[in-house]
Amino acid sequence: MTTAAPPLGGYTIVDLSSGIAGAYCTRLLADAGADVVKIEAPEGDPLRVWSASGAELSGDGALFTFLAGGKQGVVADPDNAADVAMVEALLASADAVVWSRGSRIADLPALAPQAVHDRHPHLVVTSITPFGLDGPWRDQPATEFTLQAWSGGAIGIGRGSQDRAPVHVGGRAGDWVCGAYASALTLAFRARALRDGHGELIDLSMLEAQILCLTYYPVTYFEMLGRPWRTERKPTVPGVAQAADGLVALGCGTAQQWFDLCAMSGHDEWIDEESSLTITEQANLHAEELYEWLRGQNVDDVRDLASAFRIPNSPVANGANVTDMDHYIERGSFVANPHGGFTQPGHPYRLGGVALAPPRPAPRLGEHTDAHRAAVPPVRTAPASTRDPLPLSGLRVLDMTTFWAGPSCTHAMALLGAEVIHLESTRRPDGTRLIAGIPATVPQWWEQSPIFSALNSNKLGVTLDFQTERGLDLLRRLIATCDVVVENFTPRVIDQLGLDFDSVRALREDIIMLRMPGFGLDGPWRDNPAFAYIIEDATGLSWLTGYPDRNPYEPYSIGDPNAGIHALNAVQLALEHRRRTGEGVLVEAAMADAALHIAAEQVIEYTAYGALLERAGNRGPAAAPQNIYQVSGIDEFGRDDCWVALAVGSDAQWRALREALGSPDWAMAADLDVEAGRRARHDDIDAALAAWCRDRTGDEVVATLWPAGVPVGKVLQPHRQTEIEQLAHRGFFEQLGHPVNTSASHSTLPARLANGPASFHRQPAPLLGEHNAEVLRGIGVTDDELASLYDDGVIGDAPATGRRKAAR
Predict the structure, then answer these.
(1) Domain ends where: 311, 344, 362?
(2) Do 759 and 390 meet the contact criterion of CB atoms below 8 Å apart?
(3) Quick check: bond before 625 cis, omega within 30?
(4) 275 in any annotated domain
(5) pTM greater than 0.85 (yes/no)
(6) Beta-sheet pairing, 246-250 with 313-315
(7) Which of 184, 307, 451, 515 has the CB geometry, 3.0–4.6 Å to 568, for a possible disulfide?
(8) pLDDT tens digits, residue range 366-409?
(9) In whole angstroms, what is the distance from residue 532 CA to residue 169 CA?
(10) Which residue range is the domain that position 268 belongs to?
(11) For the chain, what is the domain count?
């Protein structure tokens, strides 16, 4: 296979966005070969003067230099008619637009997403806003920090500690993930536009993207089981722990891993296979003794021992040490920026035989303006009507993934119209079937997991024991009928089965094989077990989450769905390469590579300015004051534990805040009029705001500050997301029935569409082996053979039995 032109070569995108989300979206597309034309007002994108550490800049900031690499730079003055006409000409000749509020040129009414879509129906217009373009909250102020509060992500799935305020996930991770979603959806509707000439208005909500990536389907869980996933904040055990010579990360995602950790630490007496407690609860019982043991061990010794026991483990990465870790060095995970001289991550995925762009300089302000002034828009015919609004219709995907990262990728594909066949075995069902805490005495307990339901709607369900010769033969026959195969086993498993890419391509020459290992297909950590929290520890995502006087808290949420949405980008680029060349592609979408990208600012700040970004609780570099404050009220669990998040991101918002508070004396000092003064006196401001909030309910605080234009949000329990009227207006949750479970709300994609489907869920998650007969008959299996396969346990419809007397 020879390296061909980049998959998006010749695809033109007008970038009318400001901030991380839009910049990261268009950076991903530019790296795939798209011509991205970044439009700025004369004062430039605010990221040009940004440094998270507050470093003195002699030119464009390093983060801007990274995110704008390979783009063209055009300046357009919104007060100059000729400049506005130039932008209009660029729109007429482009294929897509990425838009967000925040610049004077993007804020022109004529350049609003709906207006652009109306004038240029061929364009895929991707709008990125906090809450969406319509609905009761459409114009409410927000920051990534306050969106975490509204999403439930600030409480997450138990992160933190009950003796302190809830703590947000550091590093503005929500903005980065939103950018990955924007890129993936732009690619999806580009595929439809190629098919029928019809563009789309993608109205992406950053709140909805954060719900999908910072919480674990809490509404579906609550409605199906009548209880929340977590009721209190507790650190993960063992999580990030202090060893004799530094921090080390250990995790237990399964009962076997907990039992092995007990044995590894010399405490076999902790093993209780009959306990009614969850693994998390058992680990918490022995936390102090476990931490005491770890404090007497060296990091390398702990990691060597854990690896021998197959227990997930990693060092704890930050901006200073991550580039020196042997795994990333061997894999070449970091590269030098050609303009700034600092270090940045390479690509978040690897596509065999497909050209992705090397690091390229960012444009100077207005560098390419003159070249675009003479652009002549092409003559375009009216697009055809859309017969099938789903962009991935006609695509057949074999989903050999489990738990969250892989299924979240294939679930998005299923929601977008692909036929997705979710493969399990009766000996090893999808892990999410097993984590709901349903007793095995309950009939069909394995069908009652809300997490499995939330991740697998619209999919077909097949069981195959491919550890048997007959099962492996059927698997190979099934692979030959699919466009895409997705798997997230550790690399050694697929290799041992003889299903490496060359073997799979022998079954179908043009197949796309998406592999989603934790740490990649090579390198020293290749075979290490990898759950989301270990990926977060190993890439820096944990480092910025928590309080400076405590060990980092693992976000324990974002590592999996972030890997899934990056993989969705990667597989679509591979499909475009196949469309152009007819070639199959091996896609390596390692979870760690995706996580290194959304943690990129740490490495960039350290190598550009020598600044190590540190945990700061709920404070952050983008706003001052910024914090979570306790308010009056007893929560649903009977605790005095109600909170609001507040973030002042500009001097104008500070003036609005103090006026909304009644201009108290403490807020009127002249030095507080500027951010530097407020940051210097953050403790004093916190004390005053904490006292003001403590006498009011969360609703009262929001009702006072939001109308004044101050970003604020109630810190919601995640299972209360359906109480947000904005989500109800946009139909983010859809009721979905099920043959075993009660009807429950299921989240959708984080965007509404002008020409897309009104709803996304078409059928519930499959029962175990529900579609065995339908799918296997499609590859030539007879009814007699089906009956034999059931009798021999090769296929089945119940865990660990795999036997039936008759085929269905």
Answers:
(1) 311
(2) no
(3) yes
(4) yes
(5) yes
(6) antiparallel
(7) 184
(8) 999 999 987 666 666 655 555 689 999 999 999 999 999 999 99
(9) 14
(10) 252-311
(11) 2
